[in-house]
């Protein structure tokens, strides 16, 4: 018997399967990525509902807190401008984690098995998933950019490109984190715990909804451990570079992230985030190499 | 069920002749903690053969198939598929096998076509070959017209057919089918078997399947009966049934104890109560029934005669029926003759 099988009825014989090269792994990465996009584009309802929450935060919570803050140091400044990058981070955070944790659904419905038994490296599957989830989350975050002018953020091309780049990095890091978590979850029910115990605290501690000044000591520490802090701050800085705000407003709403008094520069924040993202991805690959 | 006397039955290849052997398993074991699910299983499957693993749920069938598919590491022993070791040469093995699992492993939110393309990409099917091969396998299972439908709109039978098509997409040397018809209604089951039989004719492929349905095992060239993690016997369905030899006659009377005594006195037969009926084994059941009515001497309410089935084979080799062996029941005995006599004569 040769590598090809022949059929009596049809001219198309069996196919010869190559494999084992980086090119085959690349094909697998592309296909896993493509599947994420196909599934995302089919779930219009999910896209709309995922936008509802950030819009609620921005226009309801943002306006509410804004009316409180209007009497203090930030008088005359639209608080929603401050909230805007935080709400983008929220969108990216939720979408990334949700995309990554869909692995648990894949496990539940068996499709994970179809992937795991394929003759490709696990690294290719995990990378495809990470890039796919990150793409979806970036697109979802980008949809929020439509609301920028409504909250006093201009549609400046430079700003949009900068925001998209940081969003993509955020999405990649969080999807990788989500995949690490998903590799350890066996049941769909556990997803609720992840949302309540990890995702929401990450969001609130990152400075997305309020500036991280004058926090109690323990909260201050927690916010510095939160990896999202180092992504929300750069996003906010690029936004503030394009809006008019007094020095007083900047001092109140744009405190740098400090380590023991030293202000961490934005480039280091981004470099750290990228490093953490890649490290998490490697951990995810490792963990998936050991699942059945 | 038609027997396959027209089909040449491949014999076990001589040891060492790797070219004719699609699967070689030597003393394969797998334990889960204290429990040993597979206890030293050895067998060869010849190329082109359809080989069935028959046994009750929990006998070790799925554990064995998982090890052969590289999804589970053996605790000890070796297994090779198409000459490649399932532990040391995982990727080589994976490239050469197709899988149809017990539970569906399709992405229901993708179309049939997308599911198959996903598979083709992961298995490195050459780009130019994907389209034609896709059409071929989908035509084979009769889903070509539905290729753009989302899989979630498919019935259970259609999903299983699509999985069979997908398992074949990359032209595997060995197709593994783990309980391919479990959970399907009888009509769909017989359709699935239609495709599998068709496949045997059209593609020179080795098939390894597990089942706990006796009637399905008859589609195989050879069967291994597995019970409690051990292979009890391996042979063709015909040879296995011939080894049991006799038809099973079951009767209901007003006094079953008396009937057993009378069967011993007048016919010299050892009868026993099995499944609530007086059961005897005789060489030619149909010819025995008229004698039974004429000579037994007590009223008979009903009689059934069954050819030796794999149930009887299983019983003969393991001492219990497959239904007794697992909690679930429901498979009916296929009786070739069923006579219902008038009541209360």
In brief:
Chain A has 292 residues and is an all-alpha fold.
Strand order of the largest sheet of chain B: 6-7-8-3-9-10
Strand order of the largest sheet of chain A: 1-2
Give the total of beta strands of chain A: 2
For the largest beta-sheet of chain B, the strand count, sense and barrel status come to: 6 strands, mixed
Tell me the helix content of chain A: 55-70%
CATH superfamily of the largest domain in chain B: P-loop containing nucleotide triphosphate hydrolases
Q: Into which percentage range does the β-strand content of chain A fall?
A: under 5%
Q: From N to C, what is the helix and strand string of chain A?
A: HHHHHHHHHHEEH
How far apart are the first and last residues' alpha carbons of chain A, in Å? 31 Å
Overall mean pLDDT of chain A: 87
Rg measurement of chain A, Å: 22 Å
Uncertain stretches of chain A: 1-12
Broad structural category of chain A: mainly alpha
């Amino acid at each position: 018997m040769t590598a090809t099988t022949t059929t009596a009825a049809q001219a198309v014989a069996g196919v010869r399967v190559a494999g084992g090269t980086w090119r085959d792994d690349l094909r697998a990465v592309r296909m896993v990525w493509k599947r994420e996009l196909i599934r995302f584009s089919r779930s219009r309802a999910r896209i709309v509902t995922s936008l509802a929450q950030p819009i609620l935060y921005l226009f309801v919570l943002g306006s509410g807190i804004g009316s409180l803050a209007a009497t203090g140091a930030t008088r005359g400044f639209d608080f929603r401008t401050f909230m805007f990058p935080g709400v983008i981070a929220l969108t990216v955070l939720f979408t990334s984690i949700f995309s990554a944790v869909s692995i648990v659904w894949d496990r539940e419905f068996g499709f994970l098995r179809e992937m795991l038994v394929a003759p490709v490296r696990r690294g290719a599957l995990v990378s495809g998933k990470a890039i796919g989830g990150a793409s979806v989350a970036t697109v979802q975050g980008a949809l929020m950019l439509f609301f920028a002018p409504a909250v006093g953020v201009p549609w400046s091309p430079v700003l949009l490109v900068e925001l998209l780049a940081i969003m993509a990095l955020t999405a990649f890091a969080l999807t990788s984190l989500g995949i690490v978590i998903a590799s350890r979850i066996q049941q769909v029910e556990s997803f609720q715990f992840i949302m309540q115990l990890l995702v929401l605290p990450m969001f609130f501690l990152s400075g997305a909804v309020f500036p991280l000044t004058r926090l109690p000591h323990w909260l201050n520490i927690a916010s510095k451990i939160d990896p999202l802090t180092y992504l929300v701050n750069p996003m906010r800085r690029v936004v503030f570079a394009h809006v008019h705000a007094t020095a007083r407003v900047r001092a109140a709403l744009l405190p740098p992230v400090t380590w023991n008094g030293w202000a961490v520069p934005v480039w280091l924040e981004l470099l750290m985030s990228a490093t953490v993202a890649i490290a998490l991805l490697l951990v995810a690959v490792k963990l998936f190499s050991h699942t059945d | 069920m038609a027997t396959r006397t027209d089909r040449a039955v491949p014999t076990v290849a001589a040891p060492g002749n790797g070219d004719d052997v699609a699967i070689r398993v030597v003393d394969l074991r797998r334990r889960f903690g204290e429990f040993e699910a597979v206890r030293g299983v050895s067998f060869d499957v010849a190329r082109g053969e359809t080989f069935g693993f028959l046994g009750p749920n929990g006998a070790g069938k799925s554990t064995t198939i998982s090890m052969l598919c590289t999804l589970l590491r053996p605790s000890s022993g070796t297994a090779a598929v198409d000459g490649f070791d399932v532990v040391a040469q995982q990727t080589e093995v994976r490239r050469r096998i197709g899988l149809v699992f017990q539970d569906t492993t399709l992405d229901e939110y993708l179309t049939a076509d997308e599911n198959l393309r996903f598979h083709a990409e992961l298995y490195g099917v050459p780009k130019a070959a994907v389209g034609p091969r896709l059409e071929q396998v989908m035509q084979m299972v009769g889903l070509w017209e539905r290729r753009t439908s989302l899989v979630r709109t498919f019935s259970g039978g259609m999903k299983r057919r699509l999985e069979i098509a997908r398992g074949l997409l990359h032209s595997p040397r060995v197709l593994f089918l783990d309980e391919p018809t479990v959970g399907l209604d009888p009509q769909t089951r017989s359709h699935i078997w239609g495709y599998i039989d068709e496949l045997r004719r059209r593609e020179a492929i080795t098939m390894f399947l597990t089942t706990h349905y006796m009637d399905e095992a008859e589609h195989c060239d050879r069967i291994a009966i597995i019970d409690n993690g051990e292979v009890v016997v391996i042979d063709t369905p015909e040879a296995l049934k011939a080894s049991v030899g006799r038809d099973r006659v079951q009767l209901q009377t007003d006094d079953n104890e008396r009937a057993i005594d009378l069967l011993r006195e007048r016919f010299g037969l050892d009868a026993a109560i099995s499944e609530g009926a007086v059961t005897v084994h005789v060489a030619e059941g149909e010819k025995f029934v008229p004698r039974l009515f004429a000579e037994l001497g007590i009223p008979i309410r009903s009689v059934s005669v069954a050819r030796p089935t794999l149930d009887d084979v299983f019983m003969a080799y393991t001492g219990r029926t497959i239904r007794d062996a697992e909690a679930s029941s429901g498979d009916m005995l296929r009786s070739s003759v069923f006579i219902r006599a008038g009541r209360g004569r």
